[in-house]
Amino acid sequence: MEDTYKHKGLRRQLIESLRQKGIRDERVLAAMEVLPRHFFLDDAFAEWAYTDKPFQIGKGQTISQPYTVAYQTELLEIKKRDKVLEVGTGSGYQAAILGILGARVFTVERHEQLYEKARKLLQELKLTNIRCFHRDGFNGLPEFAPFSKILVTAGAAEIPQALLDQLEVGGSLVIPVGKKVQTMYRITRTGTDQFTREKFNTFRFVPFLKGLD
Questions:
Q1: Does 138 fall in a domain?
Q2: pTM of the model
Q3: Per-residue model confidence as pLDDT tens digits over 146-159
Q4: Which residues carry out catalysis?
Q5: How far is the C-alpha of 6 from the C-alpha of 105, rounded, in Å?
Q6: CATH number at residue 177
């Protein structure tokens, strides 16, 4: 894997475009500038890795466009040592961003082929604070709960109760909710059975599916 001067220049341009689109968290932007996105794409797409677009990664899944990654990560307000559950590993790119920000990341993927590929790549990148699991994301990871942050990277028709249950008090869940178009929500647990909901922009994600593949 090679990260050339050209790649770094294209990343700088991408980061500037994300600033212009309203991303304000400089820590998120710095993490995205450090991480080579082309490592997470097939060679056929590598030339376009630094355009603000999603790309197919197999199994009907995509690597989210950089703006979406930055937007969701900014909403999470990651702090070092935060214990984060990511639902939908995909290529591993979002998990890597969370890891670079200093979170302890637990990421689950329902597609075994994607899980294996992402796990190997994250190991190669020596991101030792990320643990990958081949699991049904609807169930979360109850054996490792509670989590300070939970991120869902697929469009959910409903908010899984299991994920709400696995948030610590004061923790937040960022999840896109809707069928054809999703509204981004940030749900914060304020007490044992109390939650607050904030609504943000609309996006289009691949659907959040139950079961394993």
A1: yes
A2: 0.96
A3: 999 999 999 999 99
A4: 64
A5: 30
A6: 3.40.50.150
